[in-house]
Amino acid sequence: MKYLILLLALPVMVSAKPASSDSESFPHFMSGNELFASYSHEKSKSTDYFERGIFLGFILGAMDVGRGKLFCLPSNISAKQAADTIGKYLTDNPERRHFSGARLVAEALNEHYPCEKPD
Hints:
Elements: H1 2-15, H2 32-43, H3 49-66, H4 79-92, H5 101-112
Helix pairs in contact: 2-3, 2-4, 2-5, 3-4, 3-5, 4-5
């Protein structure tokens, strides 16, 4: 069983990007620059459905992880609304795109949908 888990985790470990001086200090799946490139395909309604799917899949996964902890989304928010919010944040903040895509998704959603702070 241990070997099966290691075998399944190996591709993730091998594909993780090494940290660099202009990035965060831990490996990440997708940088903000890569996320922005995928967003550009989504925004232009490109026929590159793979790239469009990467953008939407990535942000939906990050939304599921951060919901209620890093940001508080309205119950009726659509994937399109979230994609627009995140895409605008990436467009308006090019100086931050060297950070991980997950971090930028959290920042964008927290900026627009912060959780109420307890008194």
